[in-house]
Amino acid sequence: MNNKITQLFNIKYPIIQGGMVWVSGYKLASAVSNAGGLGLIGAGSMYPDVLREHIQKCKKATDKPFGVNVPMLYPQIEEIMNIIVEEEVKIVFTSAGNPKTWTSFLKEKGITVVHVVSSVKFALKAEAAGVDAIVCEGFEAGGHNGREETTTFTLIPMVKEAVKIPVIAAGGIATGKGMLAAMVLGADGVQIGSRFAATEESSAHINFKNIIVDVKDGDTHLTLKELAPVRLIKNKFYQEVQELYQQNPTKEQLIALLGRARAKKGIFEGDLENGELEIGQIAGLIHEIKSAKQVLEEVIGEFNAVKTTVNQL
After folding, report:
1. Least packed by Cβ within 10 Å: which of 51, 222, 296, 311?
2. What's the pTM value of the predicted model, to 2 decimals?
């Protein structure tokens, strides 16, 4: 395939692997890049020295383009950005913050910058900040989402109508059919998270991978909106959150219940009762743990098959 996204990143397919916390280490990023997509290392769950190690290992594991996803709420953001420059990373995806803060700094170093948004308003701000492309993420997605709760398939055409830079669709996409639908609505490429979380190369705990496979329709919910909206699997911790809501809690009470490292406990350590189990609604269509290469090949295969069928209608 040859379009704006494949040209921008110099990749074979317009498929980006989401840079998920506790999931997206160098093994997953390099596997996706080697298979023709764009792999992303998720810096959000890494100390600076750990990120440097993953970047260096990723360079050894692939000669294809890869990038780093950086949530800008990260407390050591300046150190992280300096490491990215020192290690000569060519692609950075930023999220959870103002794109004006770091876009110019990165672009001056010759780095391609993409920002994650959840609304037309923030898409326009990202474009004005000078980013090269945007990821438009609907609230079907796992993990932290926008407060607007706009679905992917309404967000994409509205953003596409408003901006001139390439648009990448994210949230609720794990199949070739989903990819084709997103691109029909105007997306130039797709970012896939949940499907790659349940792969052999994902750094998530096997318990977390297995529960992704078991998730059914309705098993996830967007909650903790007073802090930062997050989509979780309904487990013991989730039920504790809902019980606290019955008491009309303060923000401080919610913070106290959340505590520290809940996502690490659930995703990386495999505590399925007390951890935050962040995954998207599309998990209901994930039935097997596979290699990243298999996932990418299946998505592209289905995309091409369905596209051919649609063209015959």
Report:
1. 311
2. 0.95
b/e map of 52-76 (b: 16 or more CB within 10 Å)? bebbebbeebbebbbbbbbbbebee
Q: How confident is the model at residue 272 (pLDDT cuts 50, 70, 90)?
A: very high
Vertex 11 angle, CA 164 and 45, to 5°: 85
Reported as a single tens digit per residue, the pLDDT across 143-183 is 887 778 899 999 999 999 999 999 999 999 999 999 999 99
Task: List, for residues 191-246, the tens digit of each pLDDT value.
Answer: 999 999 999 999 999 999 999 999 999 999 989 988 888 999 999 999 999 999 99
Phi then psi for residue 270, to 5 deg, are 80, 20
| CA-based nearest residue to 22, from 207, 220, 169 | 207
Reported as a pLDDT band with limits 50, 70 and 90, residue 253 is very high
According to the 3-state scheme, what is the secondary structure of 158-201?
HHHHHCCCCEEEECCCCCHHHHHHHHHCCCCEEEECHHHHCECC
Domain ranges of the chain: 4-203+283-311
292-311 helix and 176-184 helix, angle to the nearest 10 degrees: 50
CATH code, 4-203+283-311: 3.20.20.70
| Tokens read off for 292 | 């990243």
